[in-house]
Amino acid sequence: MDSRTVIIGLGNPGRDYAATRHNLGFRVVDLLAERWQAGFSGGKGEYLLAVTRFAERSIVLSKPTTYMNESGFAVQGLLSWYRIDPEDLLVISDDVNLPIGTMRFRQGGSSGGHRGLEHIIYQLGRDDFTRLRIGVGAENMPEDLKGYVLSPFRAEERELIEEMISRAADAVESYLSSGLEEAMNLFN
Fold first, then answer.
1. Which residues, including other chains, have CB under 8 Å from residue 130's CB and lie 6 or more apart?
2. Could you say which of 22, 27, 115, 133 is catalytic?
3. Is 22 a catalytic residue?
4. pLDDT digits (tens, 9 = 90+) for 127-149
5. Which domains does the chain have, with CATH numbers?
Protein backbone atom coordinates (compact mmCIF):
# COMPACT_ATOMS: atom_id res chain seq x y z
CA MET A 1 0.00 0.00 0.00
CA ASP A 2 1.02 3.55 -0.76
CA SER A 3 2.63 5.50 2.09
CA ARG A 4 0.64 8.50 3.33
CA THR A 5 1.87 11.48 5.35
CA VAL A 6 -0.21 14.20 6.98
CA ILE A 7 1.43 17.63 7.15
CA ILE A 8 -0.39 20.10 9.37
CA GLY A 9 0.51 23.76 9.49
CA LEU A 10 -0.62 25.48 12.67
CA GLY A 11 -2.17 28.92 12.69
CA ASN A 12 -5.34 30.85 13.39
CA PRO A 13 -8.10 31.16 10.79
CA GLY A 14 -9.20 34.51 9.46
CA ARG A 15 -7.80 37.55 7.74
CA ASP A 16 -6.89 39.27 11.03
CA TYR A 17 -4.28 36.59 11.79
CA ALA A 18 -2.93 35.88 8.29
CA ALA A 19 0.32 37.86 8.63
CA THR A 20 1.03 37.10 12.31
CA ARG A 21 3.95 35.20 13.78
CA HIS A 22 1.60 32.46 14.95
CA ASN A 23 0.56 31.67 11.37
CA LEU A 24 3.91 30.51 9.99
CA GLY A 25 2.66 26.91 9.88
CA PHE A 26 -0.22 27.95 7.62
CA ARG A 27 2.13 29.89 5.37
CA VAL A 28 4.53 26.96 4.91
CA VAL A 29 1.67 24.58 4.09
CA ASP A 30 0.25 27.17 1.66
CA LEU A 31 3.62 27.36 -0.11
CA LEU A 32 3.84 23.56 -0.32
CA ALA A 33 0.33 23.42 -1.82
CA GLU A 34 1.37 26.06 -4.36
CA ARG A 35 4.58 24.16 -5.27
CA TRP A 36 2.69 20.89 -5.63
CA GLN A 37 -0.30 22.48 -7.40
CA ALA A 38 -2.78 21.30 -4.77
CA GLY A 39 -5.85 23.30 -3.78
CA PHE A 40 -7.41 23.43 -0.32
CA SER A 41 -11.02 22.51 0.33
CA GLY A 42 -13.13 21.76 3.39
CA GLY A 43 -12.58 18.40 5.06
CA LYS A 44 -14.82 16.13 7.12
CA GLY A 45 -13.93 18.06 10.26
CA GLU A 46 -12.47 21.31 11.56
CA TYR A 47 -9.76 21.67 8.93
CA LEU A 48 -9.00 22.54 5.34
CA LEU A 49 -7.06 20.00 3.34
CA ALA A 50 -5.29 19.46 0.05
CA VAL A 51 -4.47 15.93 -1.07
CA THR A 52 -1.54 15.48 -3.44
CA ARG A 53 1.55 13.38 -4.12
CA PHE A 54 5.22 14.02 -3.47
CA ALA A 55 8.24 11.69 -3.24
CA GLU A 56 6.17 8.66 -4.22
CA ARG A 57 3.71 9.03 -1.38
CA SER A 58 0.27 10.45 -0.78
CA ILE A 59 0.36 13.73 1.09
CA VAL A 60 -2.45 15.35 3.03
CA LEU A 61 -1.74 19.03 3.68
CA SER A 62 -3.97 20.55 6.32
CA LYS A 63 -4.76 23.80 8.11
CA PRO A 64 -6.99 23.54 11.19
CA THR A 65 -9.98 25.89 11.19
CA THR A 66 -10.05 25.83 14.97
CA TYR A 67 -8.04 28.47 16.74
CA MET A 68 -4.46 27.61 17.67
CA ASN A 69 -5.22 26.54 21.25
CA GLU A 70 -7.73 23.93 19.99
CA SER A 71 -5.64 22.51 17.14
CA GLY A 72 -5.77 19.04 18.67
CA PHE A 73 -9.45 18.64 17.75
CA ALA A 74 -8.65 19.13 14.05
CA VAL A 75 -5.53 16.93 14.14
CA GLN A 76 -7.27 14.10 15.97
CA GLY A 77 -10.25 14.26 13.59
CA LEU A 78 -8.05 14.26 10.50
CA LEU A 79 -5.90 11.35 11.64
CA SER A 80 -9.01 9.39 12.58
CA TRP A 81 -10.76 10.11 9.27
CA TYR A 82 -7.73 8.98 7.23
CA ARG A 83 -6.79 6.20 9.68
CA ILE A 84 -3.27 7.55 9.96
CA ASP A 85 -0.98 6.88 12.89
CA PRO A 86 0.70 9.90 14.53
CA GLU A 87 4.07 8.53 13.42
CA ASP A 88 3.06 9.62 9.88
CA LEU A 89 2.27 13.16 11.06
CA LEU A 90 4.41 16.28 10.63
CA VAL A 91 3.26 19.42 12.46
CA ILE A 92 4.72 22.79 11.42
CA SER A 93 4.57 25.61 13.97
CA ASP A 94 6.15 28.85 15.08
CA ASP A 95 8.46 28.76 18.11
CA VAL A 96 9.30 31.73 20.36
CA ASN A 97 12.16 29.73 21.90
CA LEU A 98 14.07 29.74 18.60
CA PRO A 99 15.49 32.96 17.15
CA ILE A 100 14.11 34.28 13.88
CA GLY A 101 16.05 32.73 11.03
CA THR A 102 16.32 29.26 12.57
CA MET A 103 14.25 26.11 12.40
CA ARG A 104 14.40 22.73 14.04
CA PHE A 105 12.97 19.30 13.29
CA ARG A 106 12.17 17.24 16.34
CA GLN A 107 10.75 13.77 16.82
CA GLY A 108 8.55 13.72 19.90
CA GLY A 109 8.98 15.60 23.13
CA SER A 110 7.14 18.30 25.02
CA SER A 111 5.14 21.19 23.62
CA GLY A 112 7.83 23.68 24.64
CA GLY A 113 5.03 25.91 25.91
CA HIS A 114 3.34 26.14 22.49
CA ARG A 115 -0.40 25.93 23.16
CA GLY A 116 -1.24 24.44 19.76
CA LEU A 117 1.28 21.61 20.19
CA GLU A 118 0.15 21.19 23.79
CA HIS A 119 -3.46 20.65 22.68
CA ILE A 120 -2.41 18.18 19.97
CA ILE A 121 -0.40 16.15 22.48
CA TYR A 122 -3.35 16.20 24.90
CA GLN A 123 -5.91 15.14 22.28
CA LEU A 124 -3.72 12.39 20.80
CA GLY A 125 -2.57 11.17 24.21
CA ARG A 126 0.98 10.96 22.88
CA ASP A 127 3.85 13.20 21.85
CA ASP A 128 5.86 11.00 19.47
CA PHE A 129 4.96 12.82 16.24
CA THR A 130 7.45 14.89 14.23
CA ARG A 131 7.46 18.69 14.38
CA LEU A 132 9.16 21.38 12.38
CA ARG A 133 9.50 24.46 14.55
CA ILE A 134 10.23 27.80 12.93
CA GLY A 135 11.87 30.48 15.05
CA VAL A 136 10.01 33.70 15.77
CA GLY A 137 11.88 34.58 18.96
CA ALA A 138 13.40 38.01 19.45
CA GLU A 139 16.57 38.99 21.26
CA ASN A 140 14.51 40.88 23.84
CA MET A 141 11.26 38.96 24.13
CA PRO A 142 8.35 41.03 25.42
CA GLU A 143 6.52 39.83 28.52
CA ASP A 144 3.23 39.68 26.60
CA LEU A 145 3.95 36.53 24.55
CA LYS A 146 0.34 36.24 23.37
CA GLY A 147 0.41 39.76 21.97
CA TYR A 148 3.82 39.09 20.42
CA VAL A 149 2.85 35.92 18.52
CA LEU A 150 -0.43 37.49 17.39
CA SER A 151 1.38 40.51 15.98
CA PRO A 152 2.61 40.88 12.41
CA PHE A 153 6.30 40.80 11.61
CA ARG A 154 8.10 44.12 11.64
CA ALA A 155 9.05 45.55 8.23
CA GLU A 156 12.73 44.74 8.79
CA GLU A 157 11.88 41.07 9.54
CA ARG A 158 9.67 40.41 6.52
CA GLU A 159 12.37 39.53 3.98
CA LEU A 160 13.98 37.06 6.39
CA ILE A 161 10.59 35.51 7.17
CA GLU A 162 9.81 35.00 3.47
CA GLU A 163 13.19 33.24 3.14
CA MET A 164 12.40 31.14 6.23
CA ILE A 165 9.03 30.05 4.80
CA SER A 166 10.75 28.95 1.59
CA ARG A 167 13.52 27.15 3.52
CA ALA A 168 10.91 25.44 5.71
CA ALA A 169 9.12 24.19 2.58
CA ASP A 170 12.49 22.94 1.29
CA ALA A 171 13.03 21.23 4.65
CA VAL A 172 9.66 19.46 4.42
CA GLU A 173 10.51 18.24 0.91
CA SER A 174 13.85 16.94 2.20
CA TYR A 175 12.07 15.18 5.08
CA LEU A 176 9.68 13.48 2.66
CA SER A 177 12.40 12.55 0.16
CA SER A 178 15.27 11.57 2.44
CA GLY A 179 13.87 11.04 5.93
CA LEU A 180 14.01 12.83 9.26
CA GLU A 181 17.70 12.28 10.04
CA GLU A 182 18.87 13.73 6.73
CA ALA A 183 16.47 16.69 7.02
CA MET A 184 17.71 17.35 10.58
CA ASN A 185 21.33 17.30 9.39
CA LEU A 186 20.56 19.77 6.60
CA PHE A 187 18.16 22.17 8.28
CA ASN A 188 18.55 22.10 12.11
1. 89, 90, 91, 105, 106, 107, 108, 175, 180
2. 22
3. yes
4. 999 999 999 987 777 778 788 88
5. 4-187 (3.40.50.1470)
